[in-house]
What we know:
The structure is a homodimer.
Chain A (H helix, E strand, L loop, with lengths): L4 H41 L3 H32 L3 H37 L7 H22 L3 H31 L4 H33 L8 H9 L3
Amino acid sequence: MFGSDQHRQHISGQFNHELETLKHDILAMGGLVEAQLNTALESLIERNSEKAIRVTKRDSEVNNLELKIDQECARILARRQPAASDLRLVLAIIKINMDLERVGDEAAKIARQAKVIIESNVSGTQFAQLRRMGRKIAETLRAALDALARHDADAALMVVRGDSSVDQEYAHSMQTLVADMKSEPHNISTILNEIWALKALERIGDHASNIGEHVIYLVRGQDVRHLAPEAVDDRLAKPY
Amino acid sequence: MFGSDQHRQHISGQFNHELETLKHDILAMGGLVEAQLNTALESLIERNSEKAIRVTKRDSEVNNLELKIDQECARILARRQPAASDLRLVLAIIKINMDLERVGDEAAKIARQAKVIIESNVSGTQFAQLRRMGRKIAETLRAALDALARHDADAALMVVRGDSSVDQEYAHSMQTLVADMKSEPHNISTILNEIWALKALERIGDHASNIGEHVIYLVRGQDVRHLAPEAVDDRLAKPY
């Protein structure tokens, strides 16, 4: 079917170009939701409702980019019939795309909670829990996106493993906020808004961990989902 | 490459068999997480901790089936290079599989909350909110899985559209529980456990809605994610 080597190279050059576009777009998606998360956290901590509104407005950009990437993946699968590592790349990007879109959703939720908290005009809290947890989760997401950009399975594994320390931070923050509710029942509504934001952060941490798993699959062809940390080490230690 | 029509038919017969296995497995996955949700709700309403434990134990079955289906999808894409509606089927199943696995996770969360509530031995609540919301969400998930089984885009669209009534039920239940926290601050911990279960139900409703969107894509090749309900109607009214 292919007339000449030149034609074949041309086809393969186009294919490479499509894969590069796809990689570029998924990293752009990562950058976009990372910016959404950071702006949402700033809106909360600075009590800046303009920033909160900016996040909710930009959510449609996240959604549009999700659809664009998904269409690119479907088109590549239909036309290029990729195999081996190219196929793994496309499959991993389909999943990473879903996780990133949901990170965007959670960032928008944090922005909505920030708006409610700002409007309720309660001046007491300094959001100590949310600041700490927010910083930790933003770092985790950044590490997952770096691992993706560099196709670094070891760095991705660190993200997957790191999740338990985030879980502890989350549990501690939640206990503190629940204790606050009991001692200040008149503040229950505002504290609940903080709890919703905290839960959104926890979710983002879960999605970052999922992204780490997808990067490991992409680079090593190993599916490490649902394994205990020791089992992940064991699985990855085997020759591949 | 293919020696004869007979060989070609043989290949295509195997391929059909693989697609049938995939459809069978995704419906089995749906049935499994549906059972997990119902058992989790029963454990809560009947204060039956044995049922709650059963749900958390079976979560690994859900995870294993997720991985199996994912591997089948990757194998079909690598070996069969499906096109058109076959490709859409595989892509839709990859996504439905992710949503179903997360429904399983949320069911396990409900079971864990049930266990905490049972152990805390508070006798007051009859879980009126959780019963009502649980029934609604179980119906929604069932409708999404029926639409998948029958490849019924109209039924899937009903699931996608129905989400706003579930949202209202959720908002009402949440308001009631928050009011309870304010009037009974000594019960805050238990009421929070109910709130976590309620939030898990809301998530399951979101996943059911996502599944409805994937079914519409599978049947009609139309991506209706992130569209307002009127826009979905408009999009689907166009010739396809």
